[in-house]
Amino acid sequence: MRNYIALIHKDADSDFGVSFPDFPGVVTAGRDLDEARRMAEEALALHVEGLLEDGDAIPEPASLDAVMENQDNRDGVAILVSLKTEGKKAVRINITLPEDMLASIDAFAEANGFTRSGFLARAAKHEMESAHSGNGRKRALAV
């Protein structure tokens, strides 16, 4: 299991933001520190799953010294986030979506630091968890 450094940032009147120096563009946030840490684990896992699915290399974790050499990183508080997806095999699938929906998905994913695959996996997980909450009642999905 690899551990990556995440930086927690907090401005007045904002949530706790989290970024990953080893994965530029991967960001998340939480209302409190516990939620920020959970969201950081999820964001890292989903991003790495997308990289693996796309056949991209996963970078080795940088040392704390290397991260803190960058002046831009010094305003954050460093935490370790464990990568828990190692050993999970990514499976390539083929799906069909309306062209405008795919464009919207890609734009949203890019703007929020996800790959297409990472975003779709996160959206699916969210929907499945939502469907199972509320005493096991199922909910219909509108597409």
From TrEMBL:
Transmembrane segments: none annotated. One of its GO terms (biological process) is regulation of DNA-templated transcription. InterPro entries: HicB-like, Ribbon_hlx_hlx, TA_system_antitoxin, TTHA1013/TTHA0281-like. Residues 4-124 form the HicB-like antitoxin of toxin-antitoxin system domain. It comes from the Bacteria. It holds the Pfam family HicB_lk_antitox. This is Putative RNase H-like HicB family nuclease. It comes from Rhizobium soli.
